Amino acid sequence: MLTSFARTVARSAAAVPCRGLFSSVTAVPADPILGLVAAFKTDSAIRKVNLAQGAYRTEEGQPFVLGAVREAEEMVVAAGHDKEYLGVEGNTEFLEAASAFAFGSGSEVLDGRIAAVQSLSGTGALRLAADTLKLIGGVKKIYLSSPSWGNHQKIFAAAGLEVGNYRYLDYDSGGTAIDFAGMVEDIQELPDGSTVLLHACAHNPTGVDPTAEQWQALAPIFKQKNLFPLFDSAYQGYASGDPTKDAYSIRHFQEEGMPHGMMVCQSFAKSMGLYGERVGAFNVVTDSKSTAEALMTRIKAQVVRPNYSSPPLHGARLAALVLTDASLKAKWMVDLQMMSTRINAMRLQLVAELQRLETPCPSGKQWSHITDQIGMFAFTGLTSVEVNYLREVHSIYLTADGRMSLAGLSGKDVGYVAAGIDAARRQ
């Protein structure tokens, strides 16, 4: 039987409305890219085109599984591997091959100077980089190009880093060419020792890259000011079809010798079509083998173990096979050439159709800025108002900044998309 005091407490508790811990939480807008993907799926239009998401599609608009990856998967299944946990650092065979892919098989840094861990694709590699910079390196701020991939700012801010910017696009050209003079001026004015994120190739969202000569001009500035470069390498081999060409920036900076070392975040989502497998690598170049070994203990204990403990197994096995088996790697190179060639063909066809329609061009270059760019994206120069018009009237989906995924465009849709852009520019 309850005492009088207990009954009073029970009545008081019952009188207080029960509110959950998250009852006052309010919704936030959908992710700028993933929200568009979701909207596209629910769009009931008879004809619609998704050019918002960075995923390769065949000419028929279907997802593409690379032949080399299919063969690797068959080999993994036939081998009858177990499903035991990977170590905290991940699949070591994959990591060694991934580092060699980025820096070149003959690079001196492969002799023990790289601290490398497997990551949850490129996004995960960047978060590992952010946490390593903050928790182990004591870094407080990182500088990004303006613009940069939309998730960059969120990743580094979530890790507790302040985010600054340096100029990248020449907006006098309609925002379709690099403002290299402005980029250099801003980087020269950064505090000595600053951390700077660079896109290794196929700059996202613009597809506008520095030339080899411009990378050569940037490297001495980084050395003189003791700047720490962090390369985001999500498109090596997929941008031009040539992995060596696409790795030029990384390899040149390494050969020049950065005073404080450098970081490289790799993703194999695009280049191997391993989107859902989440295969990536985080590499830190150090000054010695002993430094790399000590740093590895810190990354494993302070960054990886408290976060997800160890990475996924299957995708790393596939990537390791494709990177190390001579036959599979040769087939992968053929697929890379095929994918990059098809994307370039879409560039040419779209520009030809826009020129045929005499569509007003925001850059004043008759749309040739699209063929000057590289990688899976075209930075069209379209305004957010024009992008909204395309989506609402024609069910053609681009991101709000005018970025178009040419990897999702097919020949049968070029005329429809060009006509929509023409209407948007004239409306």
What does this molecule look like?
With 427 residues, the protein is α/β, with parallel strands linked by helices. It folds into 2 domains: 132 residues, Aspartate Aminotransferase, domain 1 (Alpha-Beta Complex); 258 residues, Type I PLP-dependent aspartate aminotransferase-like (Major domain) (Aspartate Aminotransferase, domain 2), CATH 3.40.640.10. The chain is 46% helix and 12% strand. The protein is built from 16 helices and 11 strands. Strands 2-8-7-6-5-3-4 form a 7-stranded mixed beta sheet. It has a two-stranded parallel ribbon with strand order 1-10. Helix 6 links the parallel strand 3 and strand 4. Helix 7 runs parallel beside helix 8 and helix 12 packs across helix 13. The radius of gyration is 24 Å and the shape is globular. The model has no long low-confidence stretch (mean pLDDT 91).
What's the layout of helices and strands?
Elements: H1 4-15, H2 34-42, E1 49-50, H3 67-79, H4 92-103, E2 114-120, H5 121-136, E3 141-146, H6 150-158, E4 162-167, H7 180-188, E5 195-199, H8 212-224, E6 228-233, H9 243-246, H10 248-256, E7 262-267, E8 279-285, H11 289-304, H12 314-324, H13 326-356, H14 368-372, E9 377-379, H15 384-394, E10 396-397, E11 403-405, H16 411-426
Parallel strand pairs: 1-10, 3-4, 3-5, 5-6, 6-7
Antiparallel strand pairs: 2-8, 7-8, 9-11
Helix pairs in contact: 3-12, 3-13, 4-12, 5-6, 5-11, 7-8, 8-10, 12-13, 13-16, 15-16
- Helix-and-strand structural type: alpha/beta
Beta-strand segment tally: 11
Q: State mean pLDDT (0 to 100 scale).
A: 91
Within CATH, the superfamily of the largest domain carries the name Type I PLP-dependent aspartate aminotransferase-like (Major domain)
CATH topology of the largest domain: Aspartate Aminotransferase, domain 2
Strand order across the biggest sheet? 2-8-7-6-5-3-4
Number of discrete domains: 2
> What would the principal axes of the Cα set say about the shape?
globular
Order of helices and strands: HHEHHEHEHEHEHEHHEEHHHHEHEEH
Largest sheet: 7 strands, mixed
| Percent helix range | 40-55%
Q: Which strand-content bin applies to the residues?
A: 5-15%
How many individual helices?
Answer: 16
Radius of gyration: 24 Å
